[in-house]
Request: fold
Amino acid sequence: MKITLLGYMGSGKTTIGKQLSEQQKIPFIDLDHYIEEKIGKSVSDIFDQDGEIFFRLKEHEYLKELLEKDESFVLSLGGGTPCYAGNMDVIVNKENVTSVYLRTSIDTIVERLEQEKDSRPLVAKLNKEELHEFVAKHLFERSFFYEKASQKVVTSNKTVAEIVSEIEAILPNKQ
Reply:
């Protein structure tokens, strides 16, 4: 069983993914970290030195590589992963893959990103109003791809434990 978590940055993919992997007793993989290990550079350095097109090609390549593996895992995707190179089609058409969209409100995302600005270069220089507009625009553009996920879980006003339980309840092969 492979579980892919998708959603906008700040939607909780990493936090939920780590907890879900513990509960399911399967490994957790963060796609961005996987790419960094494979290439030997940070995502920021890849974007700066090699460009976004190179990054998106590698992201697609490594996503397919991971989904071809025989073992079970929880995979946290980058916020943009579903939107490029036909990645959502690869995910939803792959057997034994459950894709879960962590549907998070704009206000919740903005609140979380406000607290994490230092570690989020894309939004580091935006004030709260600009950040709200930035997130709303991106969510609107990306929702077409996110909504293709086989499962959707609303995360706002829920604890990590509640979200993980909700995901576990919708998994096809509950352990």
The first strand starts at residue 2 and ends at 6. The radius of gyration is 16 Å.
